[in-house]
Amino acid sequence: MERDEKKNNNKRTMKRLALSPLKAFGLSSFVGLLSLKSGGGATSSHGPKFIAAKGEASAEVIPEHVVKVQAWMQDGNLDMAIWGVLPEELLEHILAYIPFPRLSCIVTVCKRWQSLIHCPLFLQTHAENTSQWPSYGPVRYNVKMLENGEFHWSGYCKFTNTWQKLPPLSLPCLAGKQLWSGAGGLLCFYNRDNMGRLIVCNPVTKRWRELPPMNQKWRWPCITHMIMDESTKAYKIVMAGNEAYPCNSSSYRSKSTEVYDSLLDTWQLSGSLPKDLYLDTQDGVLYNGLLYCTAQRTRTEMSDELLAHDALVAYDVQRGMWIEVCSQLPDSSAHQTPLLCRGHIVIVVEPLDNDDAEGRVYVLDATTKNWSLLTIMPPSLHKKLGFWGVCVAHGNQIFVVADTSMVVVVYDMGEGTWQELPSHQADSTFQSITPTLFSPDVNAVP
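Given the sequence above, the corresponding structure tokens read:
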């Protein structure tokens, strides 16, 4: 009998040890996730509850799926006897649905969970359900932290309408570098001060690599755009325009284009910009294999005045050449950002003067190449924004983000409405802002 008691104690100890990582992480999050997927009902610490209608019995009406949930819970906690012997495959599948910001907590619980993101079932789950992690963008980060190789950042999540702190990256390779671009779950870093090589990393897996040297020096390229092939996970990086040299330098306002191909692991010089056109922006948008950017013509003397004529240009990624799409932009006196929204190329015009100014959005007619006014930002919203930071597009919505505050204004192209999103105070140390969109992907390889 004493031996049986010891055996039972050993079993209980093993179950407790098996469950300890789950308890350390906080199993209530799993219950919350499962309850959300079940859907419906008011929530409490014990899951959804449904209250009987007035005039009926006062007892709570608990649906069958909630009864099943409570069957493997004791006093609001998950039952050790069940969760302590949870099959490995089921555990991997459940943890694969944990939101990305909390994934960094998982890998610090135990060695078993540290290797979780490399397990076949975890990778397969994410490959088959690419939408389970939301995208974040734009991105704010702390420049000072990068001096030590620590990347502290936050991203705007359109599904929760909040700024969320994302797991920090502590990689020595990032020292002195800044976020330059990103695509398909990867981020691209560059140090324009010493014109070092680009670093590409996956913030989920913490894997990274330094790209080979470029063919020419790129101190401050006008365009650095990463393009990801979702089917093959191969990527390209397009660098074009260069304006960070003295005016008497041969590299001043360079018209060259250089492209990195991850399949070939090489940089190749590509076609130059059309004659008399120079890139004047660091914003670009990819649509049907064309990378659309704004450009500026050489100043010409007309009626004793120097005028700047802007144009929309596009880089054909497959053919490696630039084309001029249209010779006029809606407003040459303001900063203009090309975006892709609801299947259309649009231009968001940021006024240079905040006094009695209007933010406008124009849409391009793909046939006539003419611009038509789509909407005007309400003056009250423009006043709240102050100076604009960046503009990004998610599906049918255009987000305009303030430069020095966390104010976000959104235009819904489908409904034709403007609104200010609920503010969420993020850490004020996130000083720099970039239009980079980050979509967590555990299967993306630098």
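The two ends are 59 Å apart (CA to CA). Try to locate this feature in the token string yourself.
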